[in-house]
Specification:
By secondary structure, this protein is α/β, with parallel strands linked by helices. It has two domains: about 80 residues, no CATH class; about 350 residues, Alkaline Phosphatase, subunit A (3-Layer(aba) Sandwich), CATH 3.40.720. The protein contains 15 helices and 20 strands.
Length: about 475
């Protein structure tokens, strides 16, 4: 694990070279920034300002309580919430999402997301595949890991893919590099002190089983300035050159290059500054701070919307893919009280992100997707007041990326239980996101450890309504 001790996020401060060497030596067993930076090799493709923010609604969002409401259904299906009008003629969404209703023309509302494998993690929302696809080779890589391989450059001062998912997606390692190998792991900063996210006892055990190398601590030591760090880096280079004389594999050349770039990222201060909110204008911070207090023990509070502010700042710093999560939508009990907490958070955060990106002239370059691993049961459990897992159909939301938004795609039956028109697969959404990034998933291949090339997706056509 990369551990850089001291006061957090000070521009142009240094980092302990001993700890930095520890990170480089961690190898496959740990999350090394040097390993991550192997993804910064350009694959003959120039850098791009196109980016993706992938928002996972952890636990599975209830489609009929969001933007596929069924006000004429029986009480045990339609639930407690009332639909409200939006600025799109004929479209109504939940009363708990009034901000998004005012900018509904900025979204594509997918009501017919199908093909869920029913797994309680974010793997399918990160890759488009089930865990069993190419499992013998390590499984399919997350989109961010693919973009790291295809679009990364060793000259970048920020990693290509930053995973800020917490809770279930972190525990179950949803944003994984798969058969691309640990060199393309996401950069996963330790956000435990920034955002509240309690885990259930079972998930705490799962997380503990991963060891201490699942996140990166990024804080800078004030006693080491950039000049001292560079001196130490030069010394390391001299030692490496001595080792390279007896190294026939070429590994020392690679380690030296990637470690040198890791130094560049840390000494530039650009990425560390983006991960800090200390210097953010109070008005901007307030714009991304939802006035909702903590509710259910495993649910986010209103401060969680600041994750989207971090996502915007990271993209401005050069990151190409950012994943975040809002939890907890796993409402087997008390669905309506918990949605009264969670939906205003989602509404507040996504509205802030979309309007902020638009005002900054970034929205056409940044694709946003918000979705979960499945939907929820149409019928409310009379005993628990909850909605249970429903892989048959679920919702998804898209914005930005130059897409033709301001429309609803697909429809469901009278109880929001199955798709009745335009079923959309997870891979259809990923094909659209790749298209927005300027990557053709039907002609671009990545190679597994056996040397066999694979197209990025099996369903390679973007949604025709959006492109």
């Amino acid at each position: 694990m990369l551990r850089v001790t001291g006061k957090s996020y000070r521009h142009c401060d240094g980092v302990s070279r001993r700890n930095f060497l520890t990170a480089g030596a961690a190898g496959i067993a740990g999350l090394s920034l040097a390993d991550i930076l192997r993804a910064e090799e350009a694959a003959g493709i120039g850098s791009s300002e196109k980016a993706v923010i992938n928002i996972h609604l952890d636990g599975g969002p209830p489609q009929m309580d969001m933007f596929d409401m069924k006000p004429n259904a029986p009480t045990e299906i339609r639930g407690e919430f009332t639909p409200i009008n939006t600025n799109l003629n004929g479209l109504q969404i939940c009363e708990l999402m009034p901000r998004m209703a005012t900018i509904a023309d900025k979204f594509a509302f997918i009501r017919s997301l199908v093909g869920s494998v029913g797994a309680h993690d974010a793997y399918q929302c990160q890759s488009g595949f089930s865990k069993n696809s190419l499992k013998s080779f390590g499984g399919r890589p997350a989109m961010g890991c693919v973009v790291s391989k295809l679009r990364g450059s060793r000259r970048d001062v920020s990693p290509s893919f930053v995973d800020m998912m917490q809770g279930r997606p972190l525990v179950r390692h949803s944003a994984r590099p798969g058969f691309l190998g640990p060199a393309y792991k996401p950069f996963r900063p330790d956000m435990s002190k920034m955002f509240r996210r309690e885990l259930e006892p079972g998930m705490k055990k799962e997380l503990a089983a991963q060891g201490s190398n699942h996140t990166v601590e990024l804080s800078l030591n004030q006693s080491l300035n950039a000049a001292r760090l560079n001196d130490r880096s030069q010394l390391l280079g001299q030692l490496d050159r001595m080792k390279r004389q007896v190294d026939s594999s070429g590994m020392m050349d690679a380690l030296d290059k990637f470690n040198q770039q890791a130094v560049g990222i840390l000494t530039s201060g650009r990425f560390a500054k983006a991960m800090s909110l200390h210097d953010v204008d109070p008005k901007t911070l307030a714009r991304y701070t939802c006035p909702v207090k903590a509710g259910h023990i495993t649910s986010d509070d209103g401060k969680a919307t600041q994750k989207l502010l971090l996502a915007r700042r990271l993209i401005q710093a050069g990151v190409r893919c950012v994943s975040v999560t809002f939890a907890d939508f796993d409402t087997h009990s008390k669905n309506f009280p918990r949605m009264r907490q969670m939906l205003p958070i989602v509404d507040f955060g996504i509205h802030a992100l979309v309007t902020d990106l638009e005002e900054r002239g970034m929205l056409d370059n940044v694709s946003i997707v918000a979705w979960g691993e499945f939907g929820r049961t149409p019928r409310i459990d009379a005993k628990t007041g909850g909605r249970h897992h429903w892989p048959r159909v679920g919702p998804a939301l898209l914005a930005g990326g130059g897409m033709r938004v301001g429309q609803v795609i697909g429809s469901t039956d009278k109880i929001a239980g199955s798709a009745t028109s335009r079923p959309v697969q997870y891979q259809d959404v990923f094909a659209t996101l790749y298209h927005n990034m300027g990557i053709n998933p039907g002609s671009t291949t990545i190679v597994d450890p056996s040397g066999r090339p694979h197209y990025l997706l099996e369903r390679t056509k973007p949604l025709r309504e959006l492109v």
